[in-house]
């Protein structure tokens, strides 16, 4: 069994612009976690296999150069798998901290990893899955916000913890969206160990101490897409639990594609691995 922290961040590379942008996003992730970034391409075994591998090496070389030229310093590896992209990436996720894929626009090239397919990967993977939506490669000058989608379910504890970790990696603020109205007295009134209590503790520390995290809260909006679309100049990362497949589908479906076409709004779906894989 591999130690979880030694596992790589895997990013699917298929030759598309979306995949290159996902690779640069994933490079920040791997650097922040002090681990390897593994660029992974999946070839179609039903086509000319020699031609498929030649193409794979060209695609991976291009992505490798992009990360070295524009990304943070990070250790790189590459891998070529055969089969269905979703199945192969889901299998690789057993040995990964995180799997990243790019969210494609209508005119992007490369084998299909569009919204519904990316959502399928999020459901079948054994690790968290990032679906990266970026309009441009360079995001250094962009304001950043990590949005934690919380509810009363047990998975919300990890969602909040991961959101804070992502904010530290990306030097971003944290916004917690809740179905309740968070208040400071939740620290006294909320059940010990509940996500309400966890959030209240974080809010108190953010107010009373010199912390590295700017944390705010808001009620979960009825029209989340509309709220996200109002912030086109902010690089947003939504962190949510796998127990919300309906919300994932909404955030990668046709309506989201239209509403967020001018936005930089990625998803991080927390998908807990089996106990013997942790």
Features:
single chain; 278 residues; alpha/beta; Rossmann fold; 2 domains; 10 strands; globular
Write up this protein.
- This protein is of the alpha/beta class.
- It folds into 2 domains: 4-132, Rossmann fold, CATH 3.40.50; 143-277, Rossmann fold (3-Layer(aba) Sandwich), CATH 3.40.50.
- It has helices at residues 17-33, 49-70, 85-92, 115-124, 155-170, 186-189, 195-208, 224-229, 245-252, 254-259; strands at 9-12, 37-43, 76-82, 98-102, 129-132, 143-149, 173-178, 215-219, 234-241, 264-270.
- A 10-stranded mixed sheet has the order 3-2-1-4-5-10-9-6-7-8, with helices on both faces.
- Strand 1 (9-12), helix 1 and strand 2 (37-43) form a beta-alpha-beta unit.
Provide a quick synopsis of the model.
The protein has 278 residues and is an alpha/beta fold. The chain is built from 10 helices and 10 strands.
Q: What is the percentage of strand-forming residues?
A: 15-25%
Radius of gyration: 19 Å
Q: If helices are DSSP runs of H or I spanning 4 or more residues, what is the number of helices?
A: 10
- Helix/strand/pairing category: alpha/beta
What's the structural domain tally?
Answer: 2
